[in-house]
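[step 3/7] fold_predict: job queued, chain A
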Amino acid sequence: MLIPSAYAQAAGATGSSPDMFGGLASTFLPLILVFVAFYFLMLRPQQQRVKALQNALGNLKKNDQVITSGGILGKVVKVDDQYVELEIAPTVKIKVVRGTISEVLSPTSAKPAND
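[step 4/7] structure written:
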């Protein structure tokens, strides 16, 4: 008795085209919403941070204070196309690749190391 009613329900559901579209839309709508939320919460802010860092590296000049990806804090002494020379202590200078600079500190937030 249960089998004939199951066949009847299945035949009625596959025959209607608008109902099939509604089922398909309700299946993919949450997936699309998750992707949109992921884009606005994760990808877009990261792209903005990368763009801001690239802009800061392009405008790098002498006496800027920077932090490298290795955690070295230094003051820019000389800027080349690929390399930056940093002063990490009085009379101690190192040469680093420009791409390893992870942050350019603003002059108001940077404090001298000796204080």
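[step 5/7] annotate
The helical segments are 2-15, 17-58.
Residues 17-58 form the longest helix (42 residues).
exit 0
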